[in-house]
């Protein structure tokens, strides 16, 4: 019973973690773009901050994905370790 | 659901009670989803009180269901955060049950899912964002800033804005995911209902029941991961 419950929550956990990947990539860009847009609007610095923050947003999105993948991998390794 | 989606909900309790729209401080505001939020709160409070009034050593009925659910969630949290996670069980479990109730209310004819409104999900995501940052600040004090510095000190000027953006992106993605999924499901249900009532909507209830449960679980799980990140050592 205990084992079955563990497997089920593992499936749900992995399904959850996998399904958040897409939006995590995009939301970094959105926030970066929005920050740059508002800073440009208030500071009047032309298109430059927009560009810089958009690229930072890209980086943040990629970093989110990297962290998520690391989490999934670590979990898989733990699962493999507990089965032995 | 009002005209915002371009589709009229065929049957709504809030409209029947005259609570679909309200005038507050001279402004016409859409009130339906607030009404359903309160209804979900009411359902949970009444359920909790009735179960508490009839606690047994050998659980039966509703107590059994709730004990299984909350016990499973607690196991999940403890296996992820460790024993420190038990402190966060009230808010985590509250989030899960609240969202689950609101999501499933969307499947009941005559009711609408409160999470199909952007304001509901945004409010919850902002609460989660403030809460985990507060937990981190209380745990680490000023040293909480190390969580934003990245793994290496020379890289800190680059990592700092990156981390700020990725932290700000968290409430956004929480908001949009829950809202988008539930709203989409509500729209599909309304469209199917107008095309072929009952015949087309009943089979899809199974799929949407799973999806709504999964969305509630994802919100709960991400909150847990953020809390874990806040109380853990930086990197």
The biggest chain-chain interface is: A-B, 28 and 22 residues
Task: Describe the strand arrangement of the main beta sheet of chain B, using strand numbers.
Answer: 1-2
Distance between the termini of chain B: 45 Å
Number of distinct beta strands of chain A? 0
Sheet/helix structural class of chain A = mainly alpha
**How would a textbook summarize the main sheet of chain B?**
2 strands, antiparallel
Main structural class of chain B: mainly alpha
The parts of chain B where pLDDT drops under 50 for at least 5 residues are none
Order of helices and strands of chain B: HEEHHHHHH
Roughly what fraction of the amino acids of chain A lie in strands?
Answer: under 5%
Instruction: Count every helix of chain A, treating DSSP H or I runs of 4 or more residues as helices.
Output: 3
Domains of chain A (count) = 1
**Strand fraction of chain B:** under 5%
Largest β sheet strand count, sense and barrel closure of chain A: none
SSE ordering of chain A: HHH
The outline of chain A comes out as: rod-shaped
| N- to C-terminal distance of chain A | 19 Å
Kindly report the oligomeric state of this protein: heterodimer
Give your account of this protein's structure:
The complex is a heterodimer of chains A (84) and B (235). Chain A has 84 residues and is mainly alpha-helical. Chain A is 92% helix and 0% strand. Chain A has helices at 2-19, 21-43, 48-83. The two termini of chain A are 19 Å apart. Chain B has a two-stranded antiparallel ribbon. In chain B, a hairpin with a 2-residue loop joins strand 1 (21-24) and strand 2 (27-30). In chain B, helix 4 (89-105) packs antiparallel against helix 7 and helix 5 (118-140) packs antiparallel against helix 6 (156-195). The mean pLDDT of chain B is 83. The chains are: A mainly alpha (84), B mainly alpha (235). Chains A and B meet through helix 1, helix 2 and helix 3 of A and helix 3, helix 6 and helix 7 of B.
């Amino acid at each position: 019973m205990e084992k079955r419950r563990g497997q089920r929550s593992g499936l749900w956990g992995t399904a959850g973690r996998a399904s958040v990947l897409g939006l995590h990539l995009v939301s970094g860009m959105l926030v970066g773009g929005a920050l740059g847009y508002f800073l440009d609007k208030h500071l009047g610095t032309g298109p430059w901050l927009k560009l810089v923050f958009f690229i930072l947003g890209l980086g943040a999105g990629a970093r989110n994905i990297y962290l998520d993948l690391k989490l999934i991998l670590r979990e898989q390794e733990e699962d493999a370790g507990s089965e032995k | 659901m009002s005209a915002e989606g371009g589709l009229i909900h065929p049957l709504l309790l809030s409209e029947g009670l005259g609570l679909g729209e309200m005038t507050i401080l001279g402004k016409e505001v859409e009130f339906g989803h607030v009404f359903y939020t309160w209804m979900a709160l009411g359902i949970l409070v009444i359920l909790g009180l009735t179960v508490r009034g009839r606690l047994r050593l050998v659980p039966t009925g509703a107590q059994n269901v709730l004990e299984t659910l909350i016990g499973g969630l607690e196991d999940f949290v403890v296996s992820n955060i460790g024993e420190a996670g038990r402190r966060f069980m009230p808010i985590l479990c509250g989030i899960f049950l609240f969202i689950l109730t609101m999501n499933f209310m969307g499947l009941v004819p005559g009711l609408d899912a409160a999470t199909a409104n952007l304001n509901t999900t945004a409010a919850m995501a902002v609460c989660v964002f403030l809460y985990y940052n507060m937990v981190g600040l209380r745990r680490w004090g000023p040293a909480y800033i190390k969580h934003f510095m990245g793994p290496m000190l020379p890289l800190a000027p680059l990592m700092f804005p990156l981390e700020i953006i990725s932290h700000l992106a968290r409430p956004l993605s929480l908001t949009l995911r829950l809202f988008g999924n539930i709203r989409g499901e509500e729209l599909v249900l309304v469209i199917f209902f107008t095309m072929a009532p009952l015949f087309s909507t009943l089979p899809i209830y199974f799929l949407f029941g799973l999806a709504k449960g999964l969305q509630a679980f994802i919100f709960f799980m991400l909150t847990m991961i953020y809390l874990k990140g806040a109380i853990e050592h930086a990197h």
